[in-house]
Design a protein that fits this description.
Blueprint (H helix, E strand, L loop, with lengths): L1 H26 L3 H28 L7 H13 L5 H13 L14 H5 L6 H5 L2 H4 L3 H4 L2 H49 L20 H6 L6 H6 L15 H11 L5
Helix pairs in contact: 1-9, 2-3, 2-4, 2-9, 2-12, 3-9
Bound molecules: zinc ion (2 copies).
Length: about 260
């Protein structure tokens, strides 16, 4: 029963985000709010998801100053995808079982299954050893445990604050539309990033590189490069492969805020 309620809640939440994003365009169009939403998408998506959740926490590619890490975790929470422990565990299993039956995000069962269908396969996920006993480095980190608990309340409070202080148009643009593009650009790494594009390396999975996908995901679109060297801070390996997330990490290192 509890699982059923969880799935209904997830479905309603995703419907709300996507319908809200359409309504923002059709009934509440605002160029200024659209540009702010795009800016926040890049900020939360690149720094929160790509730099923090993905490169620092999942792959331990670098280590940031504790205060910077808390700021990053806050941005990642506001990207509305999952708490850090769950997000990193899901992604580690993706690398461990890439494009096999055990990879819940695999494109083997089609585009939509890898894009967002996997979100509804919680039963399959919960039977996996990785989710029964999540990685020790994640669950033994009190900051990550705290943010895993704070994720949902923080997101909910953001939506309430947007509505309360900004009204319906701000809720639709900075809540729904922003989250819709953040979620879909990350999901696209699992779907498009394993289906369309070029390969620099003959890895054992189906990962691909796409400059367009990299442009909208802070560098994550160079997914074949990433599968080749998951613990590297840079995802752009060749000339013309621009990686915004990598530039940001380089800046942190220069400022002695990461190593
Ligand atoms: Zn992948
Ligand atoms: Zn990865």
């Amino acid at each position: 029963m509890y699982k059923f309620i969880q799935l209904i809640f997830l479905s309603l939440f995703l419907l709300f985000i996507h319908i809200g994003a359409v309504l923002a365009f059709t009934n509440y169009f605002s160029l200024n709010l659209m540009l702010i939403a795009i800016l926040l998408w890049q900020l939360f998506g690149t720094i929160g998801i790509s730099v923090c959740y993905h490169r620092e926490l999942t792959h331990r590619a670098f280590k940031s100053h504790p205060i910077i890490r808390v700021i990053h975790l806050t941005l990642a929470s506001l990207a509305g995808q999952a708490g850090p422990i769950l997000w990193c565990t899901v992604h580690r299993t993706h690398h461990k079982y890439s494009d096999t039956e055990k990879d819940i995000q695999s494109t083997l069962e089609g585009f939509w299954k890898s894009h967002l269908g996997w979100l509804f396969q919680q039963d399959k996920r919960k039977k996996m050893e990785e989710f029964i006993n999540p990685p020790k480095d994640l669950i033994n980190d009190p900051t990550l445990v705290l943010f895993q608990k704070l994720f949902a309340p923080l997101l909910l409070m953001t939506f309430i604050a947007l509505y309360y202080f900004g009204g319906v148009d701000m809720l639709l643009w900075l809540g729904c539309f922003r989250l819709m593009i953040t979620l879909n650009s990350t999901w696209a790494i699992n779907s498009i990033g394993h289906m369309y594009g070029y390969r620099n390396y003959e890895t054992s999975d189906l990962s691909k590189n796409s400059k367009l996908l990299a442009m909208i995901s802070g560098g994550e679109g160079f997914h074949n490069n990433h599968h080749k060297t998951p613990t590297a801070i840079n995802m752009g390996h060749k000339k013309g492969e621009f990686d915004l997330g990598h530039c940001y990490i380089r800046l942190l290192i220069k400022l002695n805020l990461a190593k």
